[in-house]
Write a structure and sequence with these properties.
This protein has three helices and four strands; from the N terminus they run αβββαβα. With about 120 residues, it is α+β, with helices and mostly antiparallel strands. It has a four-stranded mixed beta sheet, with helices on both faces. Helix 1 crosses helix 3. The termini are far apart.
Length: about 120
């Protein structure tokens, strides 16, 4: 698992390039709240928008999730805990006034970036 990146994955980089090209600036892999050990993939502090681009395997995508054939007694609870942690993170940030945007790694980067840009600009107004 050491070779699995926590940040700067291909889908993240593609979205970040497009968002940056649109003129928006953001923080990368930054914690939205002090004392909460979670980091957003893209963080727009002034508008309180936290963006997560979730991997299909690690976050159990409803379209692409697969059930591990080996060591399933380890993997199934781990993947379930990832889903629970995602929901908990979304709740915590929402309760603190943040807007949480979650996307899957298989989604088209241009569409994801367009949604992010529109949302951030809308919250600026």
């Amino acid at each position: 698992m050491r070779s699995n990146k926590k940040r700067d994955t291909g889908p993240e980089l593609a979205v970040r390039r497009l968002v940056h090209a649109s003129g928006l600036r953001y923080r990368v892999a930054a914690p939205p709240l002090k004392g909460v050990r979670r980091t957003a993939d893209l963080l727009f502090g002034p508008t309180k928008v936290a963006v997560f681009i979730d991997g299909c395997f690690w976050h159990s995508c409803p379209v692409h999730a697969t059930s591990p054939r080996t060591h399933s007694d380890y993997w199934l609870p781990k993947l379930e805990r990832n889903r629970e942690r995602d929901a908990e993170t979304t709740r915590t940030l929402t309760d603190a006034g943040w807007l949480v945007l979650r996307f899957w790694e298989h989604e088209e980067p241009a569409e994801v970036a367009a949604t992010i840009v529109a949302t951030v600009r809308e919250r600026r107004a």
